[in-house]
Automatic annotation (TrEMBL):
Keyword field contains Nucleotide-binding: yes
Stretches with biased composition (Acidic residues): 18-41
Ranges that cross the membrane: 137-156, 309-328, 354-373, 854-875, 887-907, 937-961, 973-992, 999-1018, 1024-1041, 1048-1070
GO CC list: plasma membrane; trans-Golgi network
The family this protein is said to belong to: Belongs to the cation transport ATPase (P-type) (TC 3.A.3) family. Type IV subfamily.
Originating species: Mugilogobius chulae (yellowstripe goby)
Protein name, entry field: Phospholipid-transporting ATPase
Origin organism lineage: Eukaryota, Metazoa, Chordata, Craniata, Vertebrata
Mode of membrane association: Multi-pass membrane protein
Domain P-type ATPase C-terminal: 823-1077
Region annotation (Disordered) ranges: 1-57, 715-737, 1091-1113, 1129-1156
Length: 1156
């Protein structure tokens, strides 16, 4: 039954998606299940949706009734009296262009860019004869090259979209029409249709699962095209549709009405009800198959600089226009030989001269700048992708730059915001220790309980169900459980085997919603309590040699608000703590001990409930399940009613090891003056422990907690209110430091302290924010961005980090155990946290240095080139005449000077990658923005002015009184243009040679090749042959050969080049000898430092040892929901088995996991 993809208007809700909630993965494992059988999935379809509020249930879909959806109530006005159905078709269109619209639409999109529009305006001005002194092709050729390259790229991309759309829209599926299934194309599916899918079929629309070939209508889907996750998700049909809709005839008679929320863009939520045969059934996301999924295992189912230069261009043009007005009044109007036939006034001629100089001087901001920047950014992104030292071979995962526009910002990071679990840690959980009835287990012991310094792992050969990868050192606990003498220990592991949402297949492979849950059930399995199977109302486990089946009355799934889960079972001798809980103090002591070892802890509890109490609660539970608005909140309230007054049994301790290289990475980044903030949902003590283990916190730091923050902020605000305002207009407010004592400070706060703390936090070397929600993570990043104006980076691995990743200037995703949602929302992605130091200290720093060097030199060479026209204007009556030949102006930035500076932007490096990591202080210039700012811009400007002065006035002086070898004076305009152009080409190419730090054959070839290309093209376009063919466009016939055969002019070129480069050489020498930078010092001692690096690698010691401090801690349980909704809604992997022991009748609620 189809629900359509709605148009963007008409179905738009009153508000956007709720940023407070994040899409969590339904399944966090990577193992795929094996296929069971060969049948069909029947379902209804839906599509893509604009946001809407959850309370708006105005969307109705009726099965097997196409005419129903054409009724007037489902029509919407599109234009005047023209109406169409609210329900769109199923065909998709992702392409932008067709044969008729490609050229106009592509040009429109390109000219929406300010730079292209600017050069188009210049081209139009050049067509006006009374304004321009430059031919139109000097601007047209570069503009056409840029537009053409961009159009070809867009065309290739759009052709690929055309092919993809055609392929998808013409895919075949089976649709129930006229009482039987018929083959139809995807584009012909309509809302309300019943569709049949088979194994490995793509899902053609958003559809409601009715039934499948698997028991209990279970279906597996892969959602890689939606959220990037390749692990399988479980989906199940309603019990009533599974039982009554198995035959084709039954499906043809199906006439249910679906009422649900309007189409929206939330992939993680769906709320609706199905009205069928006068009964109403709740629907949620677990009943839905979204378009783009695949049925599996179910046989059937740079603008700042440009603006400054443009302002400079306007000022120069205006000044020269005023000069032309004055010159014409005083001189031009009185010289009869300058009369041009136009009787314009002096002011009118000055106005025309202004536009003429706008055209002549436009090369200060050449169009090739934008193309060059894009090429450099693309190349830098490819270098990141190709870096083998950021490749993770265990998962065959290379680093990936998902954007090309932020590489240089990687070299300017001041604040890093990091998740903890899965980002700093491996997110691979191992059951290490536990406490049961006040006694702790997990240290190395013999079977008799004798402690050992170095013990052997438990031998699991006695348990044929054991996972051999599971290691446990306490042989005494195993012996105790096997002996059956300690009832508390037996009930402890029985609880672990029952209270979970793990799914299992025929091969006894567990599919867990979180690594924590999988580790706990696997531990119970190894201790002899093996979870075997489950149905919608029972769960079967093996206890030693016996199989027992327990009736499951309710399964209350975990969520990040309650931070616990519960199961209500019939007859289980067995979670909020009661004040009368036994062993509470001893358990708390054990938790402190576990926390010192940075282990994740979880408490296990139980309570007995009566039949009457359960039945009363069950009625309220069923009412909450069918609520349309705020269903999750209603369910949470009902869950809270039963999850209280619990008895404590014990606690588990799970190890989540740090990733390799995390302490070293954090230490290096701290030396680079990058401040690292850890934002985590864990409790304060736990996060503090991890802070010490990963070297974020050190013993010489003074730790400040949330209570201290509150007091200091209260004092600061009171002082501020009591003091009269002293701030003067235009002056930045100065703040007194919060921490007046010398030394390092660190801040550890919880989510409730996040208001007005930025100034204090930024004074600290380390900040840890605990118990923060995904929204609060994003708020912390936003606060620092807003008030500190710093470049920020967020790094995480899970769906709960997406908000934080998107809020920061740069987002980094780690492809870990929590799926790919963080990666898909990021700008850069890799597999391990340790690669972050290479991304920033190597690639980021190089990218920043290269881009800054490229921009400085690009502006210099264009100032030197363009301002020659300015000096020439003083000798041409400010008449906007040009100092060079037309074709030289056209090709200067395209052919003569672009390649060397482009290669510097791509390949240059002051020191190699090893020394970049060895000396993190090399990163500081990027944070300070010291390599390209106003100062550097004006240095490039004045350097260009100086060189342009020499390029113009040295040849001008040489041409004043000169006699050639043939007795003729070579002081004509064309020879002067050749000499100035030749001097310029030598200067800019030799200048970039002086600025190049890293020489390769390619750089050398580019410099010499650019000079050779200049002379080759110049002699060609000055030849008589090309003048004969195009006499109007090539007017410098013989100018080059005539001028360059004069030794005197070669001497002029050499003098000009020498005078331009000599000051630069002297300044560079003084800087590197008297005022060397850190990079200069490293280069000077490169050999010594490389030897030190080799010695340090041989002597490297481990970074962290456990037990160094006593820190109290408790870890939150998984931040992902489990499969409780699927299980308790009446679907499971297997049907209820026969031949099991009868379910006994008393009611007992089994365990609930909760933090202490």
């Amino acid at each position: 039954m189809s629900r359509p993809r709605a148009d963007s208007e008409g179905s738009q809700g009153s508000r956007g998606p709720d940023d407070e909630e994040m899409p969590y993965s339904d399944d966090e494992t990577d193992d795929e299940l094996e296929p069971p059988s060969d049948e069909a999935v029947q379902e209804p379809a839906v599509g893509e949706h604009p946001p809407v509020g959850p309370s708006e249930m105005g969307w109705k879909v009726k099965a097997n009734d196409r005419a129903y959806h054409q009724l007037p109530e489902f029509q919407k006005k599109v234009f005047l009296c023209i109406k169409k159905s609210r329900y769109s078709g199923n065909a998709i269109k992702t392409y932008k262009y067709n044969v008729l619209t490609f050229i106009p639409l592509n040009l429109y999109e390109q000219f929406k860019r300010a730079a292209n529009l600017y050069f188009l305006t210049l081209l139009i001005l050049q067509i006006i004869p009374s304004i321009t002194t430059l031919p139109w092709y000097t601007t047209l050729i570069p503009l056409v090259v840029v537009l053409g390259v961009t159009a070809i790229k867009d065309l290739v991309d759009d052709l690929a979209r055309h092919r993809m759309d055609k392929e998808i829209n013409n895919r075949k599926t089976e649709v129930l029409l006229d009482g039987r299934f018929q083959t139809a194309k995807w584009r012909n599916i309509q809302v309300g249709d019943v569709v049949r899918l088979k194994k490995n079929d793509f899902i053609p629309a958003d559809i409601l699962l009715l039934s499948s070939s698997n028991p209990n209508s279970l279906c597996y889907v892969e959602t890689a095209e939606l959220d990037g996750e390749t692990n399988l998700k479980f989906r199940m049909g309603l019990r009533v549709t599974d039982e009554r809709l198995q035959e084709e005839r039954q499906l043809a008679d199906f006439d249910a009405l679906i009422e649900c929320e309007e189409p929206n863009n939330r992939l993680d939520k769906f709320t609706g009800t199905m009205l069928w045969q006068r009964e109403r059934y709740p629907l949620d996301l677990d009943n839905m198959l979204l378009r783009g999924c695949t049925v599996r295992n179910t046989d059937v189912a740079t603008d700042w600089s440009s603006s400054q230069i443009f302002a400079l261009l306007i000022l120069i043009a205006a000044g020269l226009a005023i000069g032309h007005t004055y010159w014409y009044e005083q001189i031009g109007s009185k010289a009869w030989y300058l009369y041009d036939g136009d009787n314009y006034s002096a002011s009118h001629r000055g106005f025309l001269s202004f536009w003429g100089y706008i055209i002549v001087l436009n090369t200060m901001v050449p169009i090739s700048l934008y193309v060059s920047v894009e090429v450099i950014r693309l190349g830098q992104s490819k270098f990141i992708n190709w870096d083998l030292q950021m490749y993770f071979p265990e998962k065959d995962t290379p680093a990936k730059a998902r954007t090309t526009t932020l590489n240089e910002q990687l070299g300017q990071i001041e604040y890093i915001f990091s998740d903890k679990t899965g980002t700093l840690t491996q997110n691979i959980m191992q059951f290490k220790k536990c406490t049961i009835s006040g006694r702790s287990y997990g240290d190395s012991t013999t079977a008799e309980g004798v402690s050992l310094d170095r013990g052997r792992p438990v031998d699991w050969s006695w348990n044929r169900y054991a996972d051999n990868k599971f290691q446990f050192m306490d042989n005494f606990l195993v012996a105790t459980v096997r002996s059956g003498k300690d009832k508390d220990a037996m009930e402890f592991f029985k609880l672990l085997s029952l209270c979970h949402t793990v799914m299992v297949d025929e091969d006894m492979v567990y599919q867990a919603a979180s690594p924590d849950e999988g580790a706990l059930v696997t531990a119970a399995r190894n201790f002899g309590y093996v979870f075997l199977s489950r149905t919608q109302d029972s769960i079967t486990i093996r206890e030693g040699d016996r199989e027992n089946t327990y009736g499951m009355l309710a399964l209350l799934d975990f969520n990040s608000d309650r931070k616990r889960m519960s199961i209500i079972c019939r007859h289980c001798d067995l979670r909020r703590l009661s004040p009368n809980s036994r062993h509470k103090d001893t358990t708390q002591t054990a938790l402190d001990s576990f926390a010192n070892e940075t282990l994740r802890t979880l408490c296990l509890c139980y309570k007995d409930i009566s039949q009457d109490e359960y039945e009363s609660w069950s009625r309220r539970h069923k009412e909450a399940q069918v609520v349309l608005a705020n269903r999750e909140e209603a369910l949470d309230r009902v869950y809270e009613e039963i999850e209280k007054d619990l008895m404590l049994i014990g606690a588990t301790a799970i190890e989540d090891k740090l990733q390799d290289g995390v302490p070293e990475t954090i230490a290096k980044l701290a030396k680079a003056d990058i401040k690292i903030w850890v934002l985590t949902g864990d409790k304060k003590e736990t996060a503090e422990n991890i802070g010490y283990s990963c070297s974020l916190l050190t013993d010489d730091m003074q730790i400040h907690y949330g209570e201290d923050v509150n007091e200091k902020l209260r004092v600061r605000q009171t002082t501020r209110r009591s003091e009269p305002p002293r701030r003067q207009p235009g002056r930045k407010r100065t703040t007194e430091p919060f921490f007046t004592q010398p030394g390092k400070n660190a801040l550890i706060i919880t989510g409730g302290w996040l208001i007005d703390f930025v100034d204090m936090a930024c004074e600290c070397e380390a900040v840890i924010c605990c118990r923060v929600t995904p929204k609060q993570k994003a708020n912390v990043v936003s606060l620092v961005k807003k008030y500190k104006k710093a470049v920020t980076l967020s790094i995480g691995d899970g769906a709960n980090d997406v908000n934080m990743i998107k809020t920061a200037d740069i987002g980094v995703g780690i492809s870990g155990q929590e799926g790919m949602q963080a990666v898909m929302s990021s700008d850069y992605a890799f597999a391990q946290f340790r690669y972050l130091q290479r991304l920033l200290l190597v690639h980021g720093r190089w990218s920043y240095i290269r881009m800054c060097k490229f921009l400085r030199f690009f502006f210099f060479k264009n100032f030197a080139f363009t301002l020659v026209h300015f000096w020439y204007s003083f000798f041409s009556g400010y008449s906007s005449q040009i100092a060079y030949e037309d074709w030289f102006i056209t090709l200067y930035n395209l052919c003569y000077s672009s390649l060397p500076v482009l290669l510097v932007g791509l390949l240059d490096q002051d020191v190699n990658d090893k020394l970049s990591l060895r000396f993190p202080k090399l990163y500081l210039p990027g944070q300070q923005g010291s390599l390209f700012n106003y100062k550097n811009f004006f240095i490039s400007l004045f350097h260009g002015i100086f060189v342009s002065l020499l390029i113009f006035f040295i040849p001008y002086g040489a041409f004043l009184q000169t006699m050639g070898q043939d007795g003729e004076a070579p002081s004509d305009y064309q020879s002067f243009a050749v000499v100035t152009a030749s001097s310029l080409i030598f200067i800019v190419n030799l200048q970039i040679s002086l600025d190049t730090s890293y020489w390769t054959f390619v750089n050398c070839f580019a410099v010499l090749g650019s000079i050779a290309i200049y002379f080759g093209i110049m002699f060609d376009i000055h030849s008589a042959g090309i003048h004969v063919i195009f006499p109007a466009y090539f007017t410098f016939t013989g100018a080059a050969s005539n001028a360059l055969r004069q030794p005197y002019l070669w001497l002029t070129i050499v003098l000009t080049v020498g005078m331009s480069l000599l000051p630069v050489i002297c300044i560079q020498f003084l800087h590197k000898t008297i005022w060397p930078s850190v990079g200069d010092k490293v280069q000077r001692n490169r050999k010594k430092y490389e030897q030190d690096l080799e010695r340090e690698e041989r002597e490297k010691a481990p970074a962290f040892q456990r037990g160094r401090r006593s820190r109290r801690s408790a870890y939150a349980f998984s931040h992902s929901r489990g499969y409780a909704d699927l299980i308790s809604s009446g679907r499971s992997i297997r049907r209820k088995p026969t031949g099991r022991p009868a379910v006994q009748q008393s009611i007992r609620e089994v365990p609930q996991a909760e933090n202490i």
